[in-house]
Specification:
Strand content: 5-15%
Number of helices: 21
Strand order of the largest sheet: 2-1-3-4-5-6
Helix content: 40-55%
Radius of gyration: 23 Å
Structural class: alpha/beta
Length: about 525
């Protein structure tokens, strides 16, 4: 059987890094690890191809080859996914849809012949057999969350590695916390399940054998959900890097209580972790309490961030506007906090009530849900009725983005982070570490686009001069962040235009909502 695996396209958002990736000649940040894993679970006798529409076109001849099309994606990819399903239906090709989107959108709305809800490890064998027999049912629901030890090596042969800036390795699923707005815990549970250390090293060996030498994203809902296991893995990663004298750098996602554990932070630094994404959400403690983000309370958020940065790890922060507790001063407080934190990459989004979350269920009981949303927290139309006036909320969101991503403010945060961080001691010189062919291309492109053709040449050249002198030990990180800043500046301008376009005509109240109150779900 010919199985065509297709990954739908992401819209252009802060998370896509699209405008920064062009500097290094890449088309997407990461490959579709879920589909690569599913491919490894399919029968060996099946012929398999994978098309990631984020890096290449889906051609008619790809569809003509396929006996069955398998798609996976997230809620934010729904428009692209549904368009692909319709394209397959028009050709009479059977479709299977799975992944997180199958837990967010009711099966009938996906329009697929077969929908897989839950994690695939325990379902694929039966699904594959019944597809071959022609007896496959419309919906397959996982009865349990499988242990990660059953997850195979992903099939690397299906992707074009050179088109991605980062490879991905999944270590765990699930998170022990209980944030009201989070769909992760609803899909993957609150008991962190981890792979064995040997599994992770085998995946790294596979990447290394394939010629990969760049960054690796450890794809976890919360890398430190099980701290004891995380420490065990970090020790093994440090030994592995030392054994192969590899320059692999690791990125991951974790929770802010990482700052409570100096041993774990040191082990992560020794293992090669250079950045960590943290869900900080809001500087307003009442918002943290109301959303059940209790792990971020009873601590100084600013001190916690600075502590993690001091271990050589860049903090990327997630922030949310639109909590019921937000008052008029939240916009000033958010911008001030981000500036003081030294977090260059601050992902500020509007609250979305995602289907299946505790938040969605509560707001639906309160009669405040308008629709299921689109999964894009940078979308300026809301899928629920906020306590704050919607127009004021969206305008405040715009004001925060414009402040934190103005060139001067952004470069000041980068410099604050660089002044705090202490990179790992490596045998390679600073010049050898960053002056690869890809980085040299990025530097030249940055100088042309930002220093010659950009809107803020003076700010750029001033920063570049300081990066080459005061922060020369971190020059590579400084220039990477300068390039990433370009993406956020472009996206901020686009969002500002989208906000203007979304405003209703005078007299309608200017409410930026998806539907009218009469269409509440």
């Amino acid at each position: 059987m010919n199985a065509l695996l297709i990954y739908p396209q992401f819209p252009d958002t802060f998370w896509s890094f699209k405008h920064a990736l062009r500097f290094v000649g890449k088309r997407a940040a990461q490959p579709p690890l879920g589909l690569m894993t599913v491919a490894a679970l399919l029968p060996p006798a099946w012929k398999k191809r994978l098309v990631d529409t984020n890096v290449e076109r889906l051609r008619d001849r790809d569809l003509a080859w396929a006996d069955v099309v398998l798609l996976s994606g997230m809620h934010i990819q729904s428009d692209s996914l549904l368009a692909i399903v319709e394209r397959c239906r028009a050709r009479g090709i059977r479709t299977v849809v799975g992944g997180p989107i199958a837990s967010s959108i009711p099966a009938p709305e996906l329009k697929a012949d077969h929908v897989v809800i839950g994690e695939a490890e325990s379902l694929i064998a039966d699904l594959a057999r019944e597809l071959e027999e022609g007896t496959a049912g419309p919906v397959y629901q996982a009865d349990e969350r499988p242990e990660m030890t059953f997850s195979p090596l992903p099939d690397l042969s299906l992707i074009k590695m050179h088109r991605y800036s980062t490879m991905a390795v999944q270590y765990s699923r699930g998170c022990p916390f209980n944030c009201e707005f989070c769909d992760i815990i609803e899909i993957y549970g609150r008991r962190p399940r981890t792979k064995a250390v040997g599994q992770v090293l085998a995946e790294l060996d596979q990447l290394r054998a394939a010629g990969w030498r760049e960054a690796v994203f450890i794809v976890d809902d919360n890398f430190i959900g099980n701290k004891a296991r995380a420490k065990e893995l970090c020790v093994a990663l440090a030994e592995w890097r030392s054994q192969y004298k590899t320059s692999f750098d690791f990125n991951t996602e974790a929770s802010l209580n990482l700052a409570d554990d100096p041993e774990l932070m040191q082990l992560m630094k020794d293992a090669g972790f250079v950045s960590v994404f943290l869900g900080i959400e809001t500087p307003d403690e009442s918002g943290l309490i109301a959303s059940n983000k209790l792990q971020n309370t009873r601590r100084s958020l600013l001190e916690s961030v600075a502590t993690i940065q001091s271990y050589g790890m860049q903090v990327m922060g997630g922030f949310i506007l639109g909590f019921d507790t937000d008052k008029e001063d939240i916009f000033d407080r958010m911008a001030e906090f981000i500036q003081k934190s030294g977090i260059p990459i601050a992902m500020v989004g509007l609250l979305q009530a995602m289907p299946g979350t505790q938040l969605f269920r509560r707001l639906r009981r309160e009669g405040r849900i308008l629709d299921a949303g689109d999964g894009d927290n940078t979308d300026v139309t809301l899928n629920f009725l906020p306590h704050m006036d919607a127009t004021r909320l969206v305008e405040g969101y715009r004001s925060v983005l414009k402040r934190i991503y103005s060139c001067d403010a952004y470069y000041e945060r980068v410099k604050l982070y660089l002044s705090r961080t202490h990179p790992r001691h490596e045998k390679l010189t600073t010049r050898q570490q960053w002056l690869t062919r890809g980085n040299a291309r990025a530097l030249v492109t940055s100088i042309v686009r930002q220093g010659v053709l950009g809107r803020h040449q003076w700010s750029y050249w001033k920063f570049l001069a300081e990066a080459a002198t005061r922060y020369r030990r971190c020059f590579g990180a400084a220039m990477t962040l300068a390039v990433m800043g370009y993406h956020f500046q472009v996206m901020t301008r686009k969002l500002s235009k989208a906000i203007d376009a979304a405003k209703q005509p005078a007299g309608s109240g200017g409410i930026l909502l998806r539907e009218t109150d009469r269409q509440i779900l």
